[in-house]
Amino acid sequence: MRLRSLAYGVIAAFIMISIGAYLIAAENEQVIQITAKRFEYSPKEITVKKGVPVVLEFTTLDRMHGFNCPGLGIRTDIRAGKANRLRFVPEKAGTFPFHCDNFCGSGHEGMRGTIIVTE
Amino acid sequence: MKIDRRDFLKLAGIGGAVFASGLGGLGPSADAASSKKDDFFFVQLSDTHWGFTGPAVNPDASGTLKKGVEAVNSLKIQPDFIMFTGDLTHVTDDDKDRRKRLSEFRDIISKLKVKNMKFMPGEHDAGLDEGEAFKELFEKMHYTFDHKGVHFIVLDNVSDPTSSMGEEQLAWLSADLKQLDKKSRIVVFTHRPLFDLYPDWDWHTRDGAKAIELLLPYSNVTVFYGHIHQEHHRKTGHIAHHAAKGLMFPLPAPGSVPVKNPIPWDANQPYKGLGFRSVKVKVKKAEFAITEIGVKGERL
User: Fold this and answer.
1) What fold characterizes domain A30-118?
2) pLDDT in tens, A4-61
3) Is B97 among the domain residues?
4) Is ipTM over 0.85?
5) What are phi and psi of B238, to 5 degrees?
6) How many domains does chain B have?
7) Ranges of each domain in chain A
8) In chain B, what residues touch A109 (CB-CB under 8 Å)?
9) The model's pTM
10) Which of B92, B199, B261 comes nearest A106 by C-beta?
11) How wide is the angle at C-alpha A55 spanned by C-alphas A53 and A56, nearest 5°?
């Protein structure tokens, strides 16, 4: 009985710690909303801080687009009528270009932007 | 594994499964005397981008395809068929213009002597309307046909804007392959490469590995594709993949520059990097002799 109570206590403590860590992380998250339309992102330059979690929330104003940032190893489809969220933790400082990787028309090749990760 | 053309040719020769030639002397005219009854030629034309304008890239944008047609017509031995591996037209955001360009393209290539022509779309033709306009004029997006003992499979990896073929088409491919003997001669035509040549430039097919997995049990498979506007050869396992030049503008080598832009026109070497290929199919040996040909019909 005593052992069982101890086990429940450990589990409860673990859950509390996990929730706490999640809330702290969520509080520190950098949430950035980005709209995509042919053939641009807004904003097209995004500055984030190294080591701090980032959530990118994408909305498309016309058709499907893509978001691909090879330097940070992240990508997502940006679908119409759908929440497109991408969470990552930038682990290196620098300037990282991103581009649309779902063919979207005559200006597709120029649909680009930059993520700047500061120290 | 990265291999250049010369290395690839050596590799292919040693392996014995595929022989690719472009080093001269194996063009249709030179090889005619030794051609066997079952052997045949086809021509691959790719990335004609009809409707493109950009004098710095191609000041003869409205004339290059027509020159290509003349060059094919001037081949001493005409091919059994001509395969167009996508991007027949240059992209336009206007649906009416897309139909107009596809229609003009069809009119121009109607001047080809060979009337047995096969088509597939590129993302410029079909990426914005899921192939609606293309199907109106050319009907099929993915299909098979057989010719003199070779099974040809045409795959669509462009009408889905995510660069995918999709589960439905993969199931169709699987069902088609199941009917074949493992030693069947199989040629696959695609627009994008099936393998990850350079995904950051959209030079891949997101679910291409699934198609390759389906094809791998078959011992004689060769893929011809377009999209990258340059000759390129790569093997995935025993499957050889051959990319063709385009007929509007060349593109840089995979990953060689930060941004993929057309290579500017060189007035000292007009039409450099443009062309098409003839492929001699040696059916019994399951070999392919590739001859690269320039816009004016010259062997490259």
Assistant:
1) Immunoglobulin-like (2.60.40)
2) 666 676 666 556 555 555 545 556 789 999 999 999 999 999 999 999 999 999 999 9
3) yes
4) no
5) -95, 0
6) 1
7) 30-118
8) 260-261
9) 0.86
10) B92
11) 140
